[in-house]
Amino acid sequence: MLALAAATLVVCAPGYPGNTAEAQPAMDALARSLARAAHVPEGSLAALYEETEPGCMRRLAQPESSLLLATLPFYLVHEQEVRLVARLSAMPQGSETLERWTLVTGKDHPPSLEGYTVESSAGYSKRFVRAMAPQLPGRAEIQQTSAVLSALKRAANGEKLAVLLDGSQAAAMAKLPFAGSLAVLQTSPPMPVALVATVRKRIDDERWKTLEAAFLRLAEDRAAREALDAVRIAGFLPLDDKALTTARTAYRRAR
């Protein structure tokens, strides 16, 4: 049995529902399942969720925070600063490991979006929004929102507003009663949904090899199924390097 020093998996999804306190029981269950799959003592791994970007950064500054499960926008924004190394792809429930980001607005929009505001769950990173929707006017105001449905309603009603949707949000849009009043302006290439990464070389290669196998086995463990369901993850898969390179290139070119 390989004993690991205490390590914390930080789960970051700014702009999405949930908070640290509500998520902690699910995080505890995930940590127990991961420790069991890695054949390490219970308590040697911990997990916690942070719903804000500053909260995530405070957690990642702590030396025990050696693993990160994050949405693509957070990963790209902080990859260099926190010295993240992408290791695995996470597959959300009812989805795939890759998704396309979609820019939508009201059906009767003008040819140019000059004077429009853009809202998105990823709006905390203006650069990411521009990377996914490079045709946006340079002066477009970009804002973060977790109220995507409300934003879509306002756009459908003619407000000067565009909304950048992730894959699951775009899929749900077609079912809205006012979907006919919305128009798709732009769709990104396939991008990773979420990634597992190591932080600042706080886990060596031997330890990561043990944890990697544990992540990949989680979906096969019936006892871990409840923990994965609680965090709305279907499982973990090898990294799609091509899709991540596409995302990095788009982000690097954006301003």
Task: Give me the oligomer status.
Answer: single chain
Strand line-up across the major sheet: 2-1-3-12-4-13
Assigned CATH architecture of the largest domain: 3-Layer(aba) Sandwich
Structural class: alpha/beta
Major β-sheet, in short? 6 strands, mixed
- The number of helices is 9
Total separate domains: 2
CATH topology of the largest domain: D-Maltodextrin-Binding Protein, domain 2
Query: What is the 3D shape?
Result: elongated
* Rg computed from alpha carbons, rounded to a whole number of angstroms: 19 Å
* Extended strand count: 13
Mean pLDDT, rounded to whole units? 92
Report the uncertain regions. none
Strand content: 25-35%
Helix and strand element order: EHEHEHEEEEHEHEHEEEHHEH
CA-to-CA gap between the ends?
48 Å
Helix coverage percent: 25-40%
CATH class of the largest domain: Alpha Beta
Under CATH, the homologous superfamily of the largest domain reads: Periplasmic binding protein-like II
List keywords for this structure.
255 residues; alpha/beta; D-Maltodextrin-Binding Protein, domain 2; 2 domains; 6-stranded mixed beta sheet; 5-stranded mixed beta sheet; 9 helices
Topology overview:
Elements: E1 7-12, H1 20-38, E2 45-50, H2 53-60, E3 65-71, H3 72-78, E4 84-92, E5 98-99, E6 102-106, E7 117-120, H4 126-132, E8 141-144, H5 148-156, E9 161-165, H6 167-173, E10 182-187, E11 191-192, E12 194-199, H7 205-217, H8 222-230, E13 233-238, H9 241-253
Parallel strand pairs: 1-2, 1-3, 7-8, 7-9
Antiparallel strand pairs: 3-12, 4-12, 4-13, 5-11, 6-9, 6-10
Helix pairs in contact: 1-7, 1-8, 4-9
